[in-house]
Amino acid sequence: MYSRALEAAVRAAKGRDVEAPVSGSRQRAEARPLVAMLAGEATAVKEVRPPLEPLCHHRVRCGAVSQALRMKLTVNLFLIVTAPAKPGFLEVLGAALLASAVSRVKAQVQPPPLRLGRFMTVHATSLAGGR
């Protein structure tokens, strides 16, 4: 996996690698409530938490390198899979505990068609436990 190879290269150069993908829309980024998913050596992750605070109101440790990117893909997959497919879905979602700013934005935006290619196949395999 690319992130593990990158981590090996960073370590070979006597550095420390921390993955820090974020979850949130552009509007959330402007208002600061992004969520950072952090992965890497525990002491390195601890050091990057404070500089991320102005941008990310919540920072979650996900484990070793590659786990933050896997978490990001899992979150994105959840958002794609929960796209409204049946009549009444948005009404039920809006009235349920799952109602959120994300579900309201998704209700207003028609997602582009999915293009399943090599990229999605590789990551879907990775999420399923393949290497």
From TrEMBL:
Gene3D superfamilies, alphabetized: NAD(P)-binding Rossmann-like Domain (3.40.50.720)
InterPro entries referenced in this protein's UniProt entry, alphabetically: 6PGDH_NADP-bd (IPR006115), HIBADH-related_NP60_sf (IPR051265), NAD(P)-bd_dom_sf (IPR036291)
Pfam family, one: NAD_binding_2
Domain 6-phosphogluconate dehydrogenase NADP-binding, first and last residues per copy: 4-57
MF GO annotations: NADP binding
Top-level taxon of the source organism: Bacteria
Name by which UniProt lists this protein: 3-hydroxyisobutyrate dehydrogenase-like beta-hydroxyacid dehydrogenase
Organism: Deinobacterium chartae
